[in-house]
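Extended Data, record histidine kinase
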Amino acid sequence: MPVFSDTEKDFSVRLMYGIMLACGVVVLSYRILHPIFAEKPKAIYTAPYLVSVAIIVCHLIAKSGRILLAAHVLIGIEWLAAFSVMLREGATQTVVFPFCLILILISALLLGIRAAYFYSFLSIVVGITSAYLVQIEVIRPVASTGPWSSLLGEICSFILVAILMKYTLLGFKTVKTELSEVQRYAKLGGWSLNMQTLELVLSKEYQYLLGYDDAKESKTLHLSTFLNAYVFDEEDKARILDILAKSRTQKKITDCAVEFVYQIRRKDGQNRFLAGKGRFRDSTIGIGTAQDITERHLAEEALRPAREIYSKVFAFSPIATTISSVHEGRYVEVNDSFLNLFGFTREETIGKTSIELNIWPDATQRKAYFDKLSQEKMLVDQELILQGKNGKIIHAECSTTFAEINGRLCAINLVKDISEKKEAESLRRLNKEISDQNELIERQKQELEEILKDLKKTQNQLIVSEKMAALGQLAAGIAHEINNPIGVIKSANDSIQNYFESSTDRTIRISEILQGLNAIVLEELHTFLNKGKKNQEILSPKEVRTRVKELEVKLKAKGFENPHSIAQDLAEFGLDSSIEEFPNLFADKDVQVLLRFAIAEIQASKSSQLIDMSVNRTSKVVYALKKFTHWSSEGIKSPVTLSESIETVLTIYHNQLKIGVEINREYNDVPPIQGYADDLIHLWTNLIYNAAQAMSFKGILGIRISRAGKNEAEVVVSDTGPGISASANERIFEPFFTTKAPGEGSGMGLDIAKKIVETHGGTIRFETSPRGTSFFVRLPISGTNLELRT
């Protein structure tokens, strides 16, 4: 027989197997004894075999755990056995009817009352059908097999009923015992009260709570006796009597239900706390339970001071704090700091969600915050942008954690307003950027002065050399390259200083205006500023004048006085369509002041960008000058990147080349070579400047860097000049030979260039035609860092 931990299911299995045992014993006994006692034994005993089949099939199904199906099979096949007897032998066989009654009882126990009704109906129908078929002589009634045979059938029926009742009562007793043990383990007892006589019945489990561990059955006593004997607190007595009196006045007394906590004194003198629950079964009898909750009650009392302290801290905290349910997101409690920060009342907040209050201006930010919270379970000081009831933007640091409150999972949220802190940080950051830019300008000014000193000193030292000639060629261009960005930096710096000199008064006035603006105007202002700061469009003077005229007409129509300056700024900043895009910024005079403030902000941003661009340009020139003027005297080879070395020369000659010379660069991937950096710069200077002069500084200058074989790099410098004459081809690398006019060249440039190439172990050659000339320089890639000049 299978065993189950489910008490109800286990009881059903035990009952079913008891029925199977009883049926098996009875039909087997009947099959053996009936032929002995019957005067006329039957030819065929069908019923015993059907019952045996039912028992075997039921056992096999029950082993698979399908108890209900097994019970249906057992009852169904046994009823078929009775059905066969009734149809074959007629309804006059009295032994069949007790057997049908037993089957009906079994079906009620195993399958429920509906199954019992079903088999009762079938038994009646079959009995009537059998009697009718006997009457019309379709079935011949079987003659009596004798009194002893009938008595044997009756005895078998009684035995079957006795065995069935034994297993049924045993199952009920098991369920009742296990239920009592569960109640005792849970410290739970039951009671009932007669509302008319006030007789109180305490269950055996309730008596356990009172200290009567040897209680065997329920106990009846008057309510007053119970109160005087076990309830020692007068307030508890009064409350119980008051609950009883109120319950009597209820019109629908069966709907009345109560819950209360009271103290009792046990038999051994211990005081315990019980939680009572009750309701009325009808208009007279009340029933209920009591559970010992002493440990939980004492723990809650111990936590009461901490809860009071927490409640005060929550209410008076200067940080906005809320408690919301996790599953619905609705606010359960908020403190005054939250209401003051966001501008809501308590009635508007409690029971609502943050979405309903429109606290999140950016739904994407809200989703990212809660996604991160679901992963990490707790967040601390996350910077967010929220908004109040009136659309006020609030920069906040938010922290969230989870806690169970009164059996419900809640989120505790802290919101710290950092709007003033963010504004202060923004001002400090801007001031620091300007200060850093000024320091950088000063440092670069000093570096320029030092470089110019070094340049003059180098010119004095190399006045008679080819290097000095190259420096002389660069003087005007270098001055132009340095003076231009310095002038831009000076102008932009003056603009920023003027902006900050008037920033205090402007900030005070603008802050007053900003407080009165709605969220739509603030959003337009924010978009207007971003668009103006990001604009990179460069317009010709003619385009600017055309746009200014159009804007002046539109601004006059909006009521602007002297609109020329605003129109000029809008055109230069690429905001000529802003009147249509941001209509609220051009609505009234107060917003016009805000517009001028926004233009000043954009102008300061543009000035900062000009300073940054000019500083980068100056840094590039300074870097190139430093590399160009640093002539090493140590004579030690070092890694040289050919593209960087050539770009240094192009930077120095930028001013001479930028007007008429187009530079085509083709830099392939070539590893650094081992060489003398200062000599290589001089090599490229000669080749590039000669190429530019050959084209009269108008044409295409081509520079290609590539790999020639495995161990060499090749640099090709080409021009689109008239080429070198045939008579000069063989003498081009001779000292003092030049194809230039007198006074324009010393004739040492290409001689020095050839020596530099040979010093590096390379080769130099050229190809020329009427369409231009190309010089090919090959240098070895391999070498050691410590190789010295020879």
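Summary. Residues 481 and 655 are 7 Å apart (CA to CA).
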